[in-house]
Design brief:
Elements (H helix, E strand, L loop, with lengths): L4 E4 L5 H7 L2 H12 L5 H8 L3 H13 L3 E8 L2 E8 L3 E4 L2 H4 L5 E7 L6 E5 L3 E4 L2 E3 L18 E4 L1 E9 L1 H4 L4 E11 L11 E7 L2 E8 L24 E8 L2 E4 L2 E4 L3 H4 L6 E8 L9 E4 L10 E7 L2
Parallel strand pairs: 1-4
Antiparallel strand pairs: 2-3, 5-19, 6-10, 7-8, 7-9, 9-18, 10-17, 11-14, 11-18, 11-19, 12-13, 12-17, 14-15, 15-16
Amino acid sequence: MSRNFLVIDPEERPEVLRGLASPVRARILRLLHRRPGVNVNDIAASLDLPQSTVSSNLQVLETAGLIRTETQKGRKGHQKLCFSAFDEVLVMFRDDLDVGQANAIEVAMPIGLYTSCEVSAPCGLCSPQGIIGLLDVPGTFLNPDRMNAGLMWFTRGFVEYQFPNNARLVGKSVVALEFSFELSSEVPGTSADWPSDITIAVNGREIGVWTSPGDFGDQRGVYTPDWWKLKGSQYGMLKSWRVTPQGAFVDGLRISAITPQDLDISAHHSIRLKIEVKPDARHPGGVNIFGRGFGNYDQDIVLRVMTEP
């Protein structure tokens, strides 16, 4: 049976340490580990705590990413069920997380420069200056102006990017690689509770699935232009996918056993990244991908390749 574990640098993830630094929250996590999928009332009764105390501590744990929640229909409306996100939490400093003394080669790819796509509506593309082509028309994703996109969204399907394999150009072996970009779920309007399973593949191999919790519109994104309507998606979460000899990770959480060797990087002139929402996903909640000029992080899709020293 696989176990989920989180690896953090305490200097980069203080909210996780705060989430763990409480006897009450430790008791809640222990309960959720034994009994996944219980609601606030059940937790309060089991731990003999006021419901208000449980609710406030669950909020801290959810903000830290230590628990996840699902909304299900109950006898009297909807109820929120709570689950522990990890079996283990490992605290390590960045020097320990890095792969030896590897050298990094970085390439930034604008979100509109995908080399292949297949998407379904609702979908669309925007540059910081305005809408590109027609909304909810998948053919717009072939518009040459897509190279200026700072925001894209689609309900099902994929976009795939082709990065140069600069490690091969300099004759070095790849020991690890990392992709970093901002994304969220996609729902007409916005909803903070709208999970979506987003699959990431590299060179045709799936490295894992990350479930976005929602489509965020409670406030304007730091870089989102003023002309973009407030009821639209405003920002996402900056996620980091890392493939190392120890396996594939999302923000330190191991999601699969895929290693750089499995990706056969040295045999290819390019490194292909595929971002996909599958039609048979448990939570097929669409995707927003944010680039320069939109969201909370003014960056493209960034690939970092770590080579041998």
